[in-house]
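testing teh design pipeline on a random one, pls ignore if ur not involved
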């Protein structure tokens, strides 16, 4: 059988507000860096959540021992599509996912 897991995560609670403060004070470099770090944190956390789903939560790959290089080459079992990324470039699905996960409540 096929299964679908859905999750949302962020690496940037308060990032938008802080970025606006940096921009208002002319600290454009800090604004760009803040957004870049938040984006990378969110990506890393998504990879961690996906790994935990594969290896422990659902456990369909309990013996997975991938190197970082193999993980980045997507050599794991399953997929992790995300709207707006190359594997799923259509952003229109975000609203449906947001509603299903009740993201605004968080």
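output:
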């Amino acid at each position: 059988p096929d299964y679908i897991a859905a999750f949302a995560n962020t690496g940037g609670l308060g990032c938008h507000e802080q970025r606006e403060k940096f921009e208002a004070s002319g600290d454009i470099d800090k604004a760009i860096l803040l957004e870049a770090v938040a984006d990378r944190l969110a990506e890393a956390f998504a990879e961690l959540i996906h790994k935990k789903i594969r290896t422990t939560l659902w456990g369909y790959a309990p013996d997975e021992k991938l190197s970082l290089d193999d993980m980045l080459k997507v050599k794991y079992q399953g997929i992790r599509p995300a709207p707006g990324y190359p594997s799923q470039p259509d952003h229109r699905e975000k609203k449906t996912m947001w509603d299903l996960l009740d993201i605004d409540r968080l």
